[in-house]
Amino acid sequence: MTKRAVVKGLGTYAPPRVLNNHDLERLVDTNDEWIVTRTGIKERHIADPEETTSDMAEKASRIALQEAGIEGDDLDFVIVATNTPDTLFPSTAARLEARLCDHPVAGVDLQAGCTGLIYAIEMASAMIQSGNFHRILVVGADKLSSITDYQDRTTAVLFGDAAGALVLEGQESTEFGILGSYLRADGRGGDLLALPAGGSRLPASAATVQERLHFLKMNGNETFRFAVKAMPEAVEKVLTKVGMTLDDMDLLVPHQANLRIIDAAVRRFNLDPDRVVINIERYGNTSVGTIPLALDEARHQGRVHRGDVIVLVAFGAGLTWGANVIRWGH
Ligand code: COA
Questions:
Q1: How far apart are CA 134 and CA 29, in angstroms?
Q2: Are residues 319 and 193 in the same domain?
C-alpha cells in the first residue's frame, strides 16, 4: 500500500451571534416562510465586525491541532481556503501561521469559491503523498457577512460565517484517509456568482462603492440549475475514480447552499436520509465552512464511525465543483 493523508484532527467554529429570519424581516422585504420554503434556512451565525476570517480560522485550527495531539510547529504547511481573506495580501494563511507557530512554516491561501475546501484537501493529500510534506493544516474559513449586501433580499438571506480545520498527516500502508478526489473549474459561468469590484479588473473607487460592487452578486436561478447537475456529477465521478459505488458510501456531506439543492441530489440517488448530513437550517451557506461544520456535527451525533466511507461534495463560484472520498479513521 502507498502513503496516504489521514485526518488526525477536525475543529470548527461559528461566531456566537445569531441572525434569524425574523431579524432579516427588519432589514429587507422578506419573510420567514419564504426563506424556509425556498432555502431551508432558519438562522445563520454572523461574526462581529472586528472578528476576521483569520480569527475564526484560528479558533477552528486550535481545536483541530489539539485533537491531533500536535502543536503548530509540528506542521509543514498551512492552506487556507477562503473567499474573504482578511486582506488580499498578506495571505490569511501567513497571518494564521504567525499565530499558531513559533517558527515559520509554509502557508498559502486558496480561492475556489465554496469548493475551496475540497480543492485544499486534494492538494494537501497530493503533497503528502509526494513525500515532501508530512503534516498539513487545511482550513476553510469565510466571513461572507463582510461581502453580503444586506439591502439585497435575494442574497442577504442565504449566507453566514464559519470556519473549519483539518489536520492531515501522512501514514504508510493504511486503508484510511483521503482515497481520491474529483475537481472541476469552468470560468465560462463565472459571472453567475461574483464579487465584481476590488480586484485588478475594477479597483475600488467612489463609483464602485456607490454602485455596491464590493458586495457579492448572484444569478440565483442559474446557479441553482448548475448546482443540481454539478453535485451529483461530482459524487458519481469521484466514486467511480476510487472504484466504488453509491452502495459503498456510508455518509454524504454536501455543501449546504440550499436545502432544495441537497434534496434534489438525495432524490436522484434515492438515498436514505440517514446517509446525508444536513444542518443548513442553523447556519445557512457558510461557503468553505459548511462541510467541516456538517461533518463535525455528524461526528458529535455519533453518525461517523471508524472505517466509514464519507463523500464530501461542493460547488461554488468559479464556477467550481468537486468531491473527496475519505475512509474515516487513522
Ligand atoms: N424574500 C422574499 N421574496 C424573495 C426573496 C426573499 N429573500 N428573494 C427573492 N424573492 C422573490 C423574487 O423577487 C421573485 O419574485 P417575483 O416572482 O415577484 O419576481 C420570487 O421570490 C421568486 O424568486 P426566485 O429567484 O425565482 O426564487 P427561487 O425559488 O429560485 O430561490 C434562491 C432563489 C436564491 C434561494 C435560489 O435560486 C438558490 O438557492 N439558488 C442557488 C444559490 C446558491 O447555491 N448560491 C451559492 C453557491 S455556493
A1: 51
A2: yes
Distance 311 CA to ligand 1 centre (A): 28
For 8-53, the pLDDT digits (tens) are 999 999 999 999 999 999 999 999 999 999 999 999 999 999 999 9
Return the C-alpha cell found at 268: 436522484
* Same-domain status, 87 and 186: no
**189: containing domain:** 178-327
pLDDT tens figures, 77-100: 999 999 999 999 999 999 999 999
Residues 292 and 239 in one domain: yes
Q: Are residues 99 and 196 in the same domain?
A: no
Check if 255 is active-site: yes
Task: Determine phi and psi for 7, rounding to 5 degrees.
Answer: -90, 115
What nine digits make up the cell of 202? 475594477
The rounded Cα 312 to chain-centroid distance in angstroms is: 10
Q: Is the pTM above the cut of 0.90?
A: yes
Gap from CA of 212 to ligand 1 centroid (Å): 19
User: How many angstroms separate the CA atoms of 93 and 75, rounded?
Assistant: 13
Ligand 1 environment, Cβ below 6 A: 30, 34, 38-39, 114, 153-154, 157, 193, 218, 220-221, 223-224, 227, 257-258, 285, 316
Domain count along the chain: 2
Residues in a beta bridge with 78: 107, 137
Closest residue (by CA) to atom 15 of ligand 1? 154
C-alpha span between 14 and 60 (Å, rounded): 9
Residue 21 pairs with which residues in a beta bridge? none
- Please check whether residues 133 and 281 belong to one and the same domain: no
Which helix or strand (DSSP H or E) is residue 262 part of?
A: helix 259-269
Element (H, E) at 54: helix 53-68
> What's 216's domain CATH number?
3.40.47.10
